[in-house]
Design goal:
Layout (H helix, E strand, L loop, with lengths): L4 E4 L3 H12 L4 E4 L13 E3 L5 H8 L2 H5 L9 E4 L5 E5 L9 E3 H10 L6 E2 L4 E8 L2 E6 L4 E4 L2 E3 L17 E12 L6 H8 L3 E6 L2 E7 L5 E8 L2 H7 L4 H6 L6 H4 L10 E7 L12 E3 L2 H4 L8 H18 L4 H31 L5 H8 L2
Parallel strand pairs: 1-2, 1-11, 2-7, 4-13, 11-17
Antiparallel strand pairs: 3-6, 4-5, 8-9, 9-10, 12-15, 12-16, 13-14, 14-15
Helix pairs in contact: 1-2, 1-4, 1-10, 2-10, 10-11
Length: 370
């Protein structure tokens, strides 16, 4: 099979694109820097939206397989203040239009739908540059180079492909997550699950918060959020759960119990975002999707959904205009900007609601009006 399309990044959006192209007989190869699908944890729960993530799965014929992975009722939301007082306790809805699924399970579903040779693991990009006539050369850290007529950057926040189309760089939002994980067989998992409830727990206050949920295997996934300057990141690393807990002095003991060391080392995840109104002029033979195109905070619940829709829409454009890539990319990018920009603006507003001066009242209001 010819390599008509080269995708950098085997995230959800890149895999949707690869799957749709493969189903249509268009040659595609995905290059992923990680050594294997299980090289790292794939994050926690996602709620897949009807007109984006779910629509993408329909286009791949995977929707019914997806339904078998859904966790009914786990869209429940519990908002508490720093003292543990419950301010909102919205039960889950098994018939919700946006069901919850583990990100790792969803990625595995997309991978299993592809022939194994399409995704090449351990191929970390060193550089990307133009090769003339709209072609691009991708150099990998192993010394190999591939040339392609159509290059798609699906390689996330720090995309190596993005500089081909724009000078824009992600900016720190002022909020940093510390990701913690407790295994299901850990004796601390059961009391943590009782605090969390059946869905997602959001304990928030001005400048900080604790967000937690249970994974399908019974393990506990916690994101501790703190508003800190970017300089703090350099001085705080490496960080332990005990150091984080100090920042939550005065919070309820039950909530501080979620800030605990597990088998895995805490992962610091500063929240970065691209400019909400980012757009770029058409660059022949290259485009972006997902976080590479419209990186935003996770507080609109749209990042994964948009990435999957991007992949589906780009595939549709390339299939409908096969043989005229530039026409396909122009149509795709016009719609990409139109759908991504308002979601990026919403995400920025919601981030300020979660950890701004009016939290947690602003968070309760957000879910009551949703």
């Amino acid at each position: 099979m010819r390599e008509d399309v080269t995708i950098i990044g085997a995230g959800l959006g890149g895999l949707v694109l690869a799957g749709a192209l493969h189903r249509s007989g268009i040659g595609v190869v995905v290059y992923e820097g990680e050594p294997s699908p299980d090289a790292r944890a794939q994050g926690g729960l996602l709620d897949l939206h009807e007109h984006s993530g779910q629509q993408a799965l329909h286009s791949l014929g995977l929707y019914h397989a997806f339904l078998k992975l859904v966790r009914p009722g786990e869209d429940a939301k519990r908002v508490v203040d720093r003292h543990g007082t419950v301010l909102l306790d919205r039960p889950g809805n098994a018939a919700t239009a946006s069901p919850e699924v583990d990100r790792g399970d969803l990625r595995r579903l997309l991978l299993d739908a592809l022939p194994p040779e399409i995704v090449q693991w351990g191929r970390k990009v060193a550089s990307v540059q133009g090769a003339g006539r709209g072609r691009h050369a991708v150099a990998f850290t192993d010394g190999s180079v591939v040339e392609t007529t159509l290059l798609v950057g699906a390689d996330g926040a720090w995309s190596r492909v993005r500089p081909l189309v724009t000078d824009a760089q992600p900016a720190y939002t002022g909020t940093c997550f510390v990701e913690l994980h407790v295994d299901a067989d850990d004796p601390r998992a059961a009391p943590a699950a009782a605090v969390i409830g059946s869905g997602t727990l959001m304990a928030v206050a001005p400048g900080q918060g604790i967000l937690a949920h249970r994974n399908a295997d019974g393990s506990i996934h916690t994101y501790v959020a703190v508003n800190r300057p970017e300089e703090w990141l350099a001085t705080a690393l490496p960080i332990t759960a005990a150091q984080i807990e100090v920042l939550f002095d005065g919070w309820a003991r039950s909530l501080r119990g979620l800030i605990t060391d597990g088998e895995k080392v805490p992962v610091v995840r500063p929240i970065y975002a691209l400019p909400p109104l980012l757009a770029w002029p058409r660059v022949k033979g290259a485009t972006l999707l997902g976080d590479a195109a419209h990186l935003m905070s996770p507080f609109a619940g749209e990042g994964a959904n948009l990435a999957m829709r991007d992949g589906a829409e780009l595939a549709r454009a390339l299939i409908d205009h096969h043989g005229d890539n530039e026409r396909a990319l122009a149509i795709y990018e016009h719609d990409l900007f139109a759908r991504g920009q308002p979601m990026a603006q919403l995400s920025a507003r919601n981030l300020s609601r979660f950890f701004g001066s009016d939290a947690p009242t602003s968070v309760v209001d957000l879910f009551r009006t949703a």
